[in-house]
Amino acid sequence: MKKYIFVCFLLFAFANAQDVEIKNIDEKIFKIDSPRVGITIDILSGTKNSFFKEDVDIDGVVVQQQVEKIALKGIMNNRAFINNKWFGLNDEVEGYTLVSITSNSVLLKREDRTKELFLKNKKDSFIKIEAR
User: Fold this and answer.
1) pLDDT value at position 50?
2) Which residues contact 73 (CB under 8 A, 6 or more apart)?
3) Which residues face 74 on adjacent strands?
């Protein structure tokens, strides 16, 4: 009899926990579904595009800043194929020093800046070769 009561208690507690979980999910869906205030098109069109560097005016001469484009294409035998050239540890790449090479990424450092480049996924048709 005690086992029967214990099992009934567990079933009741489990059913009550399911109801609480469903109520929490319903509350979250209601919060997502409620309208939110966003940014207007006028404000958005006046913001700077963070993906492009702007021209700089130096003493009346407009100088266009260069955008750094560093692309990792492959890794093989602790060497990295970056911008169509092979580099090893401590080599200079576009002003950065190559400090680390892993099986799917490289780490570049320059003074206080650090960049980590990753290989693309297999579905992006890039080839990744690893030595064992």
Assistant:
1) 64
2) 81, 82, 84, 119, 126
3) 81
Concatenating the DSSP letter of every residue in 57-98 gives EETTEEEPPPPP---EEEEETTEEEETTEEE-TT-EETTEEE
Under DSSP, is residue 107 helix (H, G, I), strand (E, B) or coil?
A: strand
Predicted TM-score (pTM) of the model is 0.45
- pLDDT 10s digits, 44-91: 777 776 666 666 666 766 666 666 688 899 999 999 999 999 999 999
**Of 104, 114, 109, 108, whose CA–CA distance to 74 is shortest?**
104
Question: How distant, in Å, are the alpha carbons of 21, 23, 83, 117 from that of 69?
Answer: 48, 50, 8, 11
Please give the Cα distance from 32 to 21 (Å, whole number).
17
In sequence order, the 6+-apart residues with CB closer than 8 A to the CB of 102 are 75
CB 119 within 8 A of CB 129: no
SS3 label, residue 31: helix
Helix, strand or coil, per DSSP, at residue 36: coil
Lookup: tokens for 74? 């492959």
What is residue 123's predicted lDDT score, i.e. its pLDDT?
58
